[in-house]
Amino acid sequence: MKTVHARNVNEAYAIGMNMLSTSGIQEESRFGKVLVMPSPVTTTYLQPTERVLFDKKRDCNPFFHLMESLWMLHGRNDVAWIEDFSSSIGQFSDNGINFNAAYGHRWRQHFDLDQIPLVINELKENPDSRRAVLGMWDPRVDLNKEGKDFPCNLAISFRVNKDQFFDKSNLDMTVFNRSNDIIWGAYGANAVHMSILQEYIAACLDVGCGRYYQVSNNYHAYVDVLARTGIPDPGPYDPYEMGQADTIPLVDDPDHWMEDLNTFMEAPEIGATPLYINNFFAHVAEPMRRSWNWYKNKDYPGALEMTEEIFANDWRLACHQWLTKRFEKHGRKKQVRKIAED
Length: 342
Hints:
The chain has helices at residues 9-23, 62-73, 79-83, 103-110, 115-125, 139-142, 182-205, 223-229, 254-266, 279-296, 300-307, 313-341, and strands at residues 2-6, 25-29, 32-36, 41-45, 133-135, 153-163, 168-177, 180-181, 208-216, 219-222. The protein is α/β, with parallel strands linked by helices. It is globular and about 50 Å long.
């Protein structure tokens, strides 16, 4: 088994892409040619809360990544809410209404129980437990079935790790994945989704957010996507390491965090900001949603200006970077049209 040992997702992306480009083998898949590692790969994130990928060629959509994470923690599987942040995501639904394999729905509703509080209670009652596992794969609806949407991530195991030297405890997390696209999945959306889940559970346990291990049984990237993104430099552009970006806590008050999440998910897209107890919703999620709405309305300067209200400067930097690229592209298009008209 190969390993990727990294500070955060930016370093992991650079290491993983370089490893795959030199050691991967080309195979055919139902969606085209892929470059795949011949053995499983484990990625270790030392600081998983540094979850925003800044690679400019990869050009992650930070709005979508955060909103999908909140949609997941809310236990949703509907297309309508999340489609507002990704117009193409509905193509992965079999019926255009909901998703079969939405992770959050699997965590909180699919098995007729909410697994998240059960995991939290298990570790509160027995911090040494090895049974704190969230399940996502369901053979009743996934095995030997046909469709567009099946879980790639199968299960998540949590462990409270006691640091004897610093007299503190951290929550470690291991995610098991059957088929991992490292560009769109492992080092894109998954790094955000899973680390937010980890940070939330850690806060509920009143422990630190420890290491995040991603075990990828089939570690791959599509050849045509690789051609577009290129292979990043081994020394990645990492604003976290450069001191240009840092994080703020996801959770201030764990007892009311899910209430705040409910308020956020049910709030109208425009109008007064609801009252929140946790700062993350009032000062990160809400201004990001408002910025996105300006962008959708093609008010690029307004969308950029709204990013200044995002307290977490990692998300602020990522949103500004993503919007600036589209603002500049829009400006060039307008210039070309003007020349053509003249």
